Amino acid sequence: MKILFISSGYNGIYDHFEAWIVQELGKKHEVQYFQYKNGLRTLQTLTKSFKPEAVITMVGFKLPINMVQWLKANHIKTAIWFTEDPYFMDQTAELSRHYDFVFTIDAAALEFYINDGHTHAYQLPLGTEPEIFKPKEMEGKFKSDICIVGYPYPDRVKYIQFLLQNTPYNIRVVGNWRKPLYYYQNNPKLIINEGWFKPSIAADFYNSSKIILNTHRPFNLKHNQNRLGIVGKSINNRTFDVAACEAFQLIEFKEDLPNHFVEDEEIAAFKNNEEMLKKIDYYLQNEEERQRIAAKARNRVLKEHTFEKRLDKLIQIISNASN
Fold first, then answer.
1. Is residue 245 a contact partner of residue 133, using CB atoms and an 8 Å limit?
2. pTM of the full structure
3. CATH of the domain at 173
4. Most buried of 94, 96, 252, 312 (most Cβ within 10 A)?
């Protein structure tokens, strides 16, 4: 298939997502990459020479709607991958109506799009890139009992405060944690790696810790744009990245988790502080069980949860609908 991939316009992790996606698509399809900032006229010129059968983009908040409308008017299939659902439903609810195909990372958001009348809406979680996220011997670098990588959402801060107050374990936090944990910065059990780290370094953190604590963004965070109040049901993409590293993770339970991993066989989950504490104590004392579960998680990810598998599904859906 001839595919035109249009950039989201976002940097940071999206630079990596988009590079991985274009790389994977290029292995099986003819792909062109376009930056929407180059304008409609440039898009028209490229489209007339390349003749794409489908156009794919992510997020969609920055892509001008007149570009999407022009593509549709010229009978080119348009697909959007909503990778921030359900946190910006105020925008995606309206945006979804402009695209032929809607792919969302979240099961609750999918229910909304279907109920809203979209006839080609599908759940498609983000995948992992196994060339980046893979097992690696770290020789003590970034070592910790518990590690959490990501933005310090209020719920995450509370989890770390709870663990510092109630366990003897050393805890590493990776991200912009210095300010929210200001009063704990001299705690000998706490290690802060401040700032955003590229995926290959995130993989080093995953490979260095005995337990990766994986929690989710709150649906009602004040920075969200989710007046519909849709509560996410699905796990985050970090789940797949950690598993690909064959690192052991303890994840905050989500309804969609059993559709991706078998609990207590391929992943461990918790629903409250008491259960989190109980499982941390247990798994830190049972290294062989941690390793067994982590190995099974990696096998599952390589079979089902890579970007290659996600894009195969995405293209197959578009192809089948076009026939």
1. yes
2. 0.95
3. 3.40.50.2000
4. 96
Count of structural domains, the chain:
2
Residue 279: count other Cβ atoms within 10 Å of its Cβ.
Answer: 16
Beta pairing, strands 30-34 & 54-58: unpaired
Is residue 134 a part of any domain in this protein?
Answer: no
With the CA atoms of 269, 271, 276 and 282 taken in that order, what torsion angle do they form, in degrees rounded to the nearest 10? -50
One domain for residues 9 and 115: yes
The mean pLDDT values, 10 residues at a time, for the chain of 323 residues are: 97 96 97 96 97 97 96 97 92 95 96 96 98 92 96 95 97 97 95 97 97 88 75 93 98 96 97 97 98 98 98 97 73
Rounded CA-CA distance 270/1 in Å is: 43
Dist. CA 266–CA 294, nearest whole Å: 6
Q: Output DSSP code: residue 19.
A: H
| Residue 271 parent element (H or E) | none
Number of helices (H), then strands (E), belonging to the chain: the values are: 11, 12
Range of the domain at 97: 2-127+306-322
Query: Is 277 within the bounds of a domain?
Result: yes
Find the largest Cα–Cα distance for the chain: 64
Residue 138: helix, strand or coil by DSSP? coil
Same domain, 105 and 234: no
| Lookup: tokens for 274 | 């008491």
Q: Answer yes or no: do 122 and 240 share one domain.
A: no
User: HSE (CB half, 13 Å, CA atoms) of 116?
Assistant: 19
C-alpha closest to that of 150 among 239, 224, 270: 239
Structure tokens that stand for 179 in this block = 């300010």
Q: 244: Cβ–Cβ under 8 A, 6 or more apart, which residues?
A: 128, 129, 130, 133, 134, 298, 301, 302, 305, 306
Q: Which residues are 33's β-sheet partners?
A: 5
